[in-house]
Amino acid sequence: MDAPKEDRKQQKQQRRAEKEPFLNKWFGVMPLSAALFYRNVKNKRKKSS
Fold first, then answer.
1. pLDDT recorded at residue 23
2. What is the extent of the structural domain holding 38?
3. How far apart are CA 41 and CA 15, in angstroms?
4. CA 23 → CA 10, 46, 48, distances in Å?
5. Residue 12 included in any domain
6. What is the CA radius of gyration of the chain?
7. Interval 5-14 mean pLDDT
8. In this structure, is residue 15 part of a structural domain?
9. Which of 22, 34, 40, 42 is 20 to 30 Å from 9 at the Cα level?
10. Which residues, including other chains, have CB under 8 Å from residue 3's CB and lie 6 or more apart?
11. How far from chain centre, in Å, is Cα 32?
């Protein structure tokens, strides 16, 4: 409680911004690429229907 509320809030936001996502940390880039691929396929099916 030494730092003012604004400073603590700013530090908390900064830590969140630096922290990498859970899936990337544990599984690498593959879940992200699979999600993007699935979203792309899903959108293409919607357009063709």
1. 72
2. 21-49
3. 35
4. 25, 27, 32
5. no
6. 19
7. 90
8. no
9. 22
10. 11
11. 9
